[in-house]
Every structure is written in C-alpha cells, then in structure tokens.
Design a protein that fits this description.
heterodimer; A: alpha/beta; UDP-N-acetylmuramoyl-L-alanine:D-glutamate ligase; Protein-Tyrosine Phosphatase, Chain A; 2 domains; nine-stranded mixed beta sheet; six-stranded mixed beta sheet; 15 helices; 19 strands; B: alpha/beta; Rossmann fold; 7 helices; 12 strands; 28% helix; globular
C-alpha cells in the first residue's frame, strides 16, 4: 500500500548526507563558516542520523563532558590514541552540540561507513543526555562542573541533576551500560558515582600545589547528601580539591588515576607524575597551568580505560600541542602572541594564576564578547580574580562587544586607568593597538585572553595575516 | 569627609553570590577609597548574629535554590529582628535577585515549598513557567539602570508598593507588569545583576550617599569615562 520501506525517516541516509554536504558547501561559499550547519541539515532530514552513523563505528564511541577543558582533554586523548594507532572520528574543533557531532560523523562518512574506528566526542554539558542516547558510548567521562554561561543553562545544580539521571539511566536510556569516569576532586561530579561501584576516578594528589584559600569563583561547596558545607583540606582549581562533609562524613572518593607530583612551570607547562592502576610514569605536559594537569589526568584515565599501555599514554600526553585557540602561541610582526581562551571565572582564574607565573610585566589583549556562544551575561568577569595581575599589567587593550565593561573590570581590579585602553572597533584594530602598546621586543610576549567567539574572530584575523594556520589546514 | 566610613554588612556572601555579587561590593569599595571615604565589610552567614546598629548598608545577593532555602530560614529567624531594626532607623539595603525575593513576604519556590521572607517590601514571589533571562534596562526617576536578569520567580507588588523602576526593555518583576524591583525608602530589591553597580556608576554613588545619609552631590566627582562607556554598552545590549 505504501511506498517501499526506505526507512522511517523518509530520505535514505546516503541521500540525506549528500544533501547536507551540499548545504554546507553553499553556506561556506556564502561566507558562513558555521561548522555545525551541515549537521543541523542532516539531523533535520534524518533525526536518527547520529545513531545510525555511530552504529557503524567498529570500536564504538567515547564521550566526554565538562564545563572546562573539553576540547583540550579530547585533544590529549586523540594524541594518545593516535600514538596507539587508533583511527578516530573526532569533533576536533569543539563543535559539541548535536549539529556539530552530526557534521563530524558526516565528514567522516565514506561509502556508507565512517573512516575511523573509534568515535571521540566532546559533548556540551546540556546536550549530554540526548547525545548519549544516540551515540551509545562505551565510556563516558565527566570531569567538572563550573559556573558557566548561566543565562543559557540555568543553574549548576540543574545540570548536576540532569547528569545524575543520565548516569542512573533515569532519562529514558536503557540502563546506561557505559563505563563511567569521574573527576574525584569536583564534589558535584564525584557524587554522580555514589550508586555505582565500577567508577574510575581521577584527581590531584600533590597538595603542594593547593591554594591556601579557595578563590571567589567557587561553586558546589555544599554536600549533596546532607546539604552541609564541605570542608576542604586542599583547594586546587575553584571548588576542585580534597573535601569532606563534617556533618554526614561523606568524603572525596580515592582516585585510581592520580597526579602524585606536580611541578608547575609558568606559562610553558608542567612536570607531573601520574599514578595509574598499572604503574606510574613521569610526564612533561606542554600546556600551562594546573587546569591542564586535570585535562591530562582525564585523558590518562580515559585512555587507560580503553586499554592503552602506560608508555603510550605518557608519549601522547607529552606530544600534545595546544588545542585550537586554547593556549596556542603564534608569531606576528616578529612578536610572540599567546592565545589563552577565557570563558568563565574558573577558567579565567586559572589563566590569571598562570600569567602571574610569567616573567616580567604583562602586555594583554582582553576581548570580551557577549554573543550567545560566549554567554550573554558578562557577570562572570567580576568573579574572575584579575586582582592577582593588577600590579603586573604594563598595558591592557580591551576589545569586543563589551570592551568598556572589560576596562571597568581591570580598573576596579587595581590597574591604573592610564594603563588601560578601550578599542571597540573590531578585532583588527584591537590587535594593532595591543601590538603598538607592547614593547617591540621579540622576547616579550603579548597575551591575548579572548572569550569563545572573540577567539574565533581573533584567530581568523591571525590567519588572514598569515600568522596562524586555518582550522581546515 | 575623610572621617566618614561606609560600613557594609554582606549577608551570606558564601551562599548568595551566584551572579558575581562581589563586583557590586568592589565597586562601592573603590569608589569610597578614591574619595577618601573609609570602607568596612563585615561578612555574616548562617548562624551569625547581626548587630542592628553596625552597618550603613546591608547587601544580599542571589543564590541557587538550595542555598537560598538555607538563607531564608536563617534570615527570618536568627537575623530577622536585626534587619528590621536596621531598616527602621533608615539603614540602606540592596538585595539582588534571590536576596530581593527574601525581602518580600514569601517565595513559593515549588509546589509544597514556600520560603519565608522578611516582609520588608510589600511583595511576594511565585515560581513561574520558565526563567526570565536577558539584558534589561529600566527607568528610575528619569535615569536608566541597565543590567542582566535571570530568574524563575515572578514578584508581585502589593497595591501601594512602589517599584524600583519602569521596564524599558527586558522582563522585570513578572514579565508583564512593566515594573522592575521594589523600593521603600532606602530598602531596594531588584532582579538586575550583571553585576548592577559596575554598569551603573551613578546608582553606586546614590547608594553610597543614601547609606551615609548625605546628598549624592556631596560626593567628589570621579573620572567615569570607562564606567560611562560600560553603562552605554549595557544599555545597548538591552536595546535602549
């Protein structure tokens, strides 16, 4: 009676992929560089496209999510797995909602199958549930939950509750058969493992890198079991640390993947000893700051769970360069420009702490945008501890859609007004102004600290000037 | 002038701080310091007794539901009499978002859960469908306040309760009343964060003057070039 059964979705998958590819090509020719547009077209044509394509990955998928460090952690995992000889389908550029994942799978689609064996997907915190249902991953890694873009996500606890349902299989997934890896040092994340006994935890063990007081951006400091405030014996990054509940005795789980020694080396990187159940290894991480130690630990835990040997994990971690726009260094006009993505107070605090370790006076280009992907609400800059840098800043050029707000923030952090400039006229003018204000000395770096869309604009400008490689290079 | 000190009581700074509320306090601190006005902050959290005579300005920020619940209970028991006494002698209060809700009579957080309030403002709040989120600008006595709002509660003013301002763009108290915030004398509740004061330096100065019991014109002028530009940026973001 009806037409031959093609599929429930109507258009066959191959035809849907071809149509979506055409749409992507047309959009690029029209000057719209959105990496997820063809994916959105595809999922519109075939709502089951992600599930169908992910089914064809021979080694299945792994999924990771966090507020901070997703792209860098995934880059570290990719580096390790590539050293291990695993071919990947990976949303490398950080397009991490359904459209971006669909576009990534589609980009790998050759003759009815993906051209990689394992799917490696970083997933937006809010999209985790839907994408876990479709991707049916072997391993899910949840690293941290920080205050981020509250205007988009609602409140932190709501995401924690959502994640809890996903882990417990209460969200309509049938029983959540994946291996679970959790950050032990983040109480909001670690508590997701309360009802499971097969969780692999990772955390920092070396208390020599702890801060004496928690910073202002701390979240989730009350016990999820009984509501009392956690007591910290060590505080590492925001609310990540060694905590226990004085009321009910609930405490940080003992991690199986641990940084037992951490020596931070300024804006260059760190030297770390990582202990895993199979042994321990010294690793050089060429990414700055304690937050990247967490990213490396997460990557070590994930690849350990996939059966990668210790030596390969260490080699992969050491060989990772900065992920796209995250602690990337480029040369422009014979000067070194270091790009440090800043998108929320916890990330900003880590960048501030890392810059505080740099030598000499600092020349900064701070770009604050308030587009949707940045978060429309710019409150978070007031939670960032820029006071740490107040007497270190030689000059800061403030740019972006909320350039003046950024300038006010630096002023109230304690930077004298005559060291602050506002250049709201576009990223090219801002870059020129920042370069002009900094000493013409190849050994003095300019630090650019852009929000997400500002980072994309700045990078595009650097590509235009021949200082950085294009993202498709 | 130099003998003056602005004494702030920060209530629950460890729990009600979700929208960078410390930016508001930092704004007050620096603007006092640049004018040679002394500045003191006393932090007071769950269980702490509050001295009703020790502060010129009490500050309450916003928090997550569970934290707000803890604060509501403490505020209406341990600190209730002191906050009322502070307000009765003309002391200023600035309460933002969750703190604003707690200055009203009650907040119906969810079916079966109603948080008690102080009743200092003649308002009450009920949880609505969805959150009211976005840039917002309001008109207050011919001037503009701009900021960002993000609240699930809808705050209803009793007849006779004065709002803080009239909505120019954004949602305000309920999304439809055209009113934003509430004000009775020096007691002010508002949903505007972002934070509020760094985007509205004139209001920071009004608040300093009100808390010290002086005319805002008595405050020494400051170079507000960046602050004025940030205010313009916040208004632009709201479309005003």
């Amino acid at each position: 009676m009806s037409a031959p059964a093609r599929s429930r979705g109507g258009l066959p998958l191959s035809a849907a992929v071809a149509t979506a590819r055409l749409a992507g090509r047309a959009a690029r020719m029209g000057g719209k560089g959105g990496t997820s547009l063809p994916g959105k077209v595809l999922t519109r044509l075939r709502p089951d496209a992600i599930a169908r394509m992910a089914d064809r990955l021979e080694e299945g998928s792994v999924v990771l999510s966090a507020t901070n460090g997703k792209t860098t952690t995934a880059a570290l995992v990719a580096s390790i797995l590539e050293a291990h000889g695993t071919t990947l389908v990976h949303n490398r550029q950080g397009a991490n909602m359904a459209g971006g994942i669909a576009a990534t799978l589609m980009g790998s689609w050759r003759g009815g199958r993906p051209n990689g064996r394992l799917g490696l997907f970083e997933v937006d915190e809010f999209w985790l549930g839907g994408l876990v249902q479709q991707l049916r991953p072997r391993v899910v890694l949840l690293a941290n939950l920080f205050r981020d873009q509250l205007d988009r996500y609602g409140e932190l606890e709501a995401i924690a509750d959502r994640w809890h349902d996903i882990v417990a299989g209460d969200d309509g997934t049938d029983g959540a058969p994946f291996r679970l890896i959790l950050g032990a040092d983040d109480p909001a994340v670690a508590d997701l493992g309360l009802e499971r006994d097969d969780v692999l935890y990772f955390g920092v063990g070396d208390v020599s890198v702890a801060q004496t007081v928690a910073d202002h951006a701390s979240d989730a400091t009350t016990c999820r079991v009984c509501g009392a405030a956690y007591v910290y014996t060590a505080s590492f990054v925001g609310h990540l640390g060694h905590y226990s509940c004085p009321s009910c005795g609930h405490t940080r789980p003992e991690p199986q993947v641990v940084a037992t020694r951490v020596v931070l080396d300024g804006t260059r990187g760190s030297d770390v000893t990582i202990a895993l159940p199979v042994g321990s290894v010294d690793v050089r991480i060429n990414l700055p700051g304690l937050y990247n130690v967490y990213n490396a630990l997460a990557a070590a835990a994930l690849t350990h769970a996939l059966g990668v040997p210790l030596a390969t994990i260490a080699a992969g971690l050491s060989s990772t360069a900065a992920a796209f726009g995250r602690a990337e260094t480029v040369v422009i006009d014979d000067r070194e420009l270091q790009l440090l993505l800043v998108k929320n107070p916890a990330g900003a605090n880590e960048v501030a702490r890392t810059l505080a370790l740099a030598d000499g006076q600092l020349d900064v280009l701070a770009v604050l945008n308030d587009r949707i992907a940045d978060g429309r609400d710019v409150s978070w800059v007031w939670d960032a501890d820029l006071e740490l840098l107040a007497d270190r800043v030689r000059h800061v050029t403030c740019a972006g859609t909320r350039a003046a707000e950024m300038a006010v923030r630096w002023k109230y952090a304690g930077v004298p007004s005559d060291r602050i400039a506002v250049v709201p006229e576009g990223i090219g003018a801002a870059l020129d102004a920042a370069l002009d204000a900094a000493p013409a000395d190849p050994t003095v770096p300019l630090y650019a600290i852009p929000t997400y869309t500002a980072m994309l604009e700045l990078r595009q400008e650097l590509v235009r000037r021949g200082a950085a490689k294009g993202s498709f290079a | 002038m130099s003998e003056r000190t602005l004494r702030i009581g920060a209530l629950y700074p460890d729990l009600l701080n979700i929208y960078a509320d410390r930016g508001n306090l930092l704004m007050l601190q620096r603007r006092c310091a640049w004018r040679g006005i002394g500045f003191e902050v006393t932090r007071s959290t769950i269980g702490d007794e509050l001295d009703p005579d020790a502060h010129d300005l009490l500050y309450l920020g916003g928090g997550q539901d569970r934290d707000q619940q803890l604060c509501a209970l403490d505020l209406t028991t341990v600190k209730k009499d002191a906050v009322h006494a502070h307000a009765a002698r003309g002391g200023a209060i600035l309460a933002v978002c969750g703190g604003y809700q707690l200055l009203g009579h009650h907040y119906g957080l969810q079916p079966g859960v109603t948080l008690p309030g102080l009743g200092l403002l003649d308002v009450h709040t009920e949880r609505g469908e969805g959150r009211l989120i976005g840039n917002v600008a309001i008109e207050v006595e011919g001037r503009t306040l701009a900021g960002f709002e993000n609240h699930g509660g809808r705050t209803i003013l009793a007849p006779g309760q004065e709002p803080l301002g009239r909505v120019l763009a954004g949602h305000g108290n309920t999304g439809s009343s055209g009113h934003e915030g509430a004000r009775t004398g020096n007691v002010i509740g508002t949903y505007l964060h972002g934070p509020l004061l760094p985007k509205n330096a004139w209001f920071a100065d009004w608040l300093i003057a009100a808390a010290l019991g002086i005319d805002p014109g008595e405050l020494a002028p400051l170079d507000d070039a960046f602050e004025d530009a940030a205010h313009a940026g916040a208004r632009r973001a709201a479309g005003v």
